[in-house]
Specification:
- The complex is a heterodimer of chains A (252) and B (243).
- Helices cover 77% and strands 2% of the residues of chain A.
- Chain A is an all-alpha fold and 252 residues long.
- Chain B is built from ten helices and nine strands.
- In chain B, helix 5 runs parallel beside helix 6 and helix 8 packs across helix 9.
């Protein structure tokens, strides 16, 4: 039985790695942003007592994991659901959990690759120094973010049409990253926009990562974790309702 | 005992009545063609037998089990109409993955041979022609060594040669003792492959029998004329039928 899950994960990884629009863009997007804002422009900037190279390592790490996850689930599920492939799978004896586990494995793997590459860039070119335990804790927290964002992506993938899903993810991912202070510190944004941030899951994710760094973070870590768990559960519920309604519509 | 059956099945999607009380059974070793115009309810009947859709009333069984049960799934395979198959997996990888779902799958090489995919098994799905793509879907349907196949419009959009090739592979499956439910709106296809034909029209079975019986019933020489005669009788204008 476990062989089925392993096989599903292995094939999903191959499939998505070869899909350049996924593998290249999820890795290159956050790396390019970090090189530009965190390294090229960094020497002149600090935030609090912290260099921008270090500060933005946390937030672009969060941004990268979000991207890897939202595209794998949001766009991936919408296309396979909308264009009939999921039906073929559901008619087969595939264990239903295998499909989601494989998507989660892809999100976590690509999230981990992005975070690891960002860390290497930060350490080598940005002079970022931390205790080994702190590196490890930050890495783990960032990669674990794939879980709540997987639920959000699944909700998008269960509702959006196959042709519009990538656009929908773009429309959510990019502005949400900006408004949550993942591109630049939230405190730099206009006050009005700052009040909006707590309603965005990515804000809480970013704040958790910043707290691990010891950067000036807002609110308590526990509350941010609770907020992410809450967002994850709500969107998992949305996905579940959308999927079970869909099974009963369709044509003759 | 039939390998699969529908008993008094109706299906309503909101206002639309897709099936209006259908009885249908597929016997062991036979190829039953479900024939009818677009929108007649063929795909709905298949979806119910695959457990993808629940009947509004009536009962569906596959090998004596609920159609969505694992027992039923392990003994059947399905080729469905699908608009997009993941293109960045190789033919062999698609087959390996689907084979892993089953308890006693065919050896990979045997599936590749039985679907006529020798020589292209290492190509990405996205690089295949239409006929080759349908043969990969056929391979995924038979790789688990099923006793029963559901083929929903398997040759739609294929050229004559690709269609004939797929027919040969379907015949070979039946020859090995498999049962098949084939839906099609190509009358020639039903005539060439089916032991028995059920003509479905607006959610009802309008006629049922061997291709020869249906031709005799309607005093026509070809299945196409018979089909038109049945449609005319059930009050469906021929223009509508032929679209």
């Amino acid at each position: 039985m476990s062989r089925v899950y392993w096989m599903e994960v292995k094939m999903e990884l191959r499939k998505m790695t070869r899909l350049r629009q996924y593998s290249l863009s999820t890795i290159c997007f956050p790396l390019t942003f970090y090189i530009f804002f965190g390294l090229a422009m960094a020497p002149s900037f600090t935030f609090g007592a912290m260099s921008m190279s270090k500060y933005l390592l946390a937030t672009y790490g969060a941004f990268g994991v979000m991207g890897a996850t939202l595209y794998a689930f949001g766009a991936g599920v919408a296309v396979e659901r909308g264009l009939g492939w999921l039906e073929v799978k559901r008619a087969s004896p595939m264990p239903p959990g295998a499909y989601l586990i494989a998507k989660a494995a892809v999100s976590i793997t690509f999230g981990a690759v992005v975070v690891t590459l960002l860390f290497a860039l930060g350490a080598i070119f940005g002079g970022v120094r931390m205790a080994a335990g702190q590196w490890l804790l930050l890495w783990t927290a960032l990669v674990a973010g794939a879980v709540p964002f997987g639920a959000i992506g699944l909700a998008i993938g269960s509702i959006a049409g196959p042709n519009s899903a990538t656009g929908v993810v773009n429309m959510i991912y990019l502005p949400m990253g900006f408004l949550s202070g993942l591109w630049m510190p939230i405190e730099v944004l206009p006050k009005g926009l700052q009040h909006l941030a707590p309603f965005l899951p990515s804000y809480h994710f970013g704040q958790i990562a910043l707290a691990i760094l010891g950067a000036p973070a807002q609110g308590s870590v526990l509350l941010h974790v609770e907020a992410l768990v809450g967002f994850g559960l709500v969107f998992a519920g949305v996905a579940w309702v959308a999927q079970s309604r869909e099974h009963e519509k369709m044509y003759g | 005992m039939p390998v699969a059956e529908l008993r008094g099945v109706t299906k309503r999607y909101g206002e639309v009545q897709a099936l209006r009380g259908i009885d249908l059974s597929i016997e062991r070793g036979e190829l039953l063609a479900l024939l009818g115009p677009n929108g007649a309810g063929k795909t709905t009947a298949v979806r119910i037998l695959l457990g993808l859709s629940k009947p509004t009333a009536g009962e569906a069984m596959v090998f004596g089990h609920h159609p969505a049960s694992q027992e039923a799934k392990l003994r059947r395979g399905a080729l469905l109409q699908v608009a997009k198959v993941p293109e960045t997996l190789k033919v062999r990888e698609h087959i390996e993955l689907f084979s892993s779902y089953y308890e006693k799958p065919l050896p990979i090489a045997e599936t590749i041979a039985a679907a006529g995919l020798g020589g292209i098994e290492n190509r990405l799905f996205g690089a295949l022609s239409g006929g080759q793509r349908q043969r990969v879907l056929f391979a995924l349907a038979i790789c688990g060594n099923p006793d029963l196949l559901f083929l929903d419009e398997p040759t739609v959009g294929l050229d004559v040669e690709s269609r004939r090739t797929l027919w040969a592979h379907i015949r070979a499956f039946v020859k090995r003792g498999g049962s098949v439910l084939l839906t099609t709106h190509y009358l020639e296809e039903a005539d060439a492959l089916a032991h028995r034909v059920a003509v479905i029209d607006r959610g009802r079975i309008a006629a049922e029998g061997t291709p020869a019986e249906i031709k005799a019933q309607t005093k026509t020489s070809g299945l196409e004329d018979a089909f038109l005669a049945i449609m005319r009788e059930s009050g469906n204008a021929p223009e509508e039928v032929l679209q």
